[in-house]
Amino acid sequence: MSAARILLAEDSEATRARLGAALRASGYTVIAARDGAEALARFEREPVDLVLSDQRMPRLDGLGLLRAVRARTAVPFVLYSAGPEPDLAWRAARLGAVGCLSFPFRVEEQLLPTIAASLGARAADTEKRRGAARFLGASPAAARVRARIARLAPLRATILVLGETGVGKEVVARALHEASGRSLWRSFAVTELAETLLEAELFGHERGAFTGAVTARPGLFEQADGGTLLLDEIGDAPPALQAKLLRVLETGELRRVGGSGSPRLVDVRVVAATHRDLAAEVRAGRFRRDLYYRLAEAVVAVPPLRERAEDVETLAHAFLAELAAAQGVPVPTASPDFFAALRAHAWPGNARELRAALQSALLWWDGRAPLAPTDLAEALAAPLPDPVGDPLSERMLAAWRAAGGNQEAARRALGLSRAAWRHRWEQIRRSGR
Hints:
Layout: E1 5-9, H1 13-25, E2 29-33, H2 36-45, E3 50-54, H3 62-70, E4 77-81, H4 88-95, E5 99-102, H5 107-128, H6 140-152, E6 159-162, H7 169-178, E7 185-189, H8 195-203, H9 220-223, E8 228-232, H10 239-251, E9 253-254, E10 264-265, E11 269-274, H11 278-283, H12 289-295, E12 298-301, H13 312-327, H14 336-344, H15 350-364, H16 391-402, H17 407-414, H18 418-430
Parallel strand pairs: 1-2, 1-3, 3-4, 4-5, 6-11, 6-12, 7-8, 8-11
Antiparallel strand pairs: 9-10
């Protein structure tokens, strides 16, 4: 098995060298970047198994890099920061980071176990669920999606995946790829770059094609030759790009920006995804009719989570196991009321919102009692219950009194994040206790 590839984003040359050496000594392949912008550029060009990033960097900070990475993929992301960053761990967790460390940290005792747990959880998850099995759920709607994946995956047809934001369109695309027998995988959201850069990103460019093109570079279609390319948010593609995409899909031929002579031939299976109603976009004149028909040779419509409420608990169990493994904590138990609260929520953000809510709930969890609806209050922006008689509120008051009225000491004693303490303490204060 090849060494896991870690993208390290750190603007300090000395720290970058020290961490890089430690990671290489532990058997990892390290891709080092001098700041967040360079890291994002490397991430888009090279396969990466985990991102390790400083928070405070020029051009693009760690949270900005995390947002950009999460827009593309669920690759594990570990953030660290040397300075005081109020609620950084909470904000990072809400964006999907698997760990947030305070720098300086102990490499052997803190960093390496976090990385190993994150990679191990990802590998175990991938091993257990590949192909159609990636799309979880016991509902008839989920079963129909899995059946469609299994039927379409071996075919050469271009596939259009439709569904609301956060519903799992990339999961479906990955499943189609894994069951197709193709090896290479690339993905790209057309909303990630300015319109002037999209053509070069997808089709490549020759040296001197534009200012800054100091070397020739293959685009994503060439990089995915023989494999699968996911074009996410295809409904937002500008008209000029739509015309060029149509030609590649129809002929398999492309020309790099600034190129001349014979076109290059590529064999790429395209899966396109969008949250937009493309048929309506065609009628409104914003999307080419011929491109729509070319993309929609086969369609997989992913239903929103509110239409398959019976899948919420299945997804929650899987997400909790994944998140707990990534954070190196035991998989929490949950009360029936906790799952009832999950099922009662509308989940406008679908599975992505559910995962983020569970990650936030783990920040509130005390590590002992089963997860309860109160652990979801912050994540779902819902009011907390009356704190009178609430177990966590009672523990907070007891710790506060034992610390002589020192809230920070009490917070540390209970292991709560500052955000969790502050939010619950405000409820206690309002109750007049």
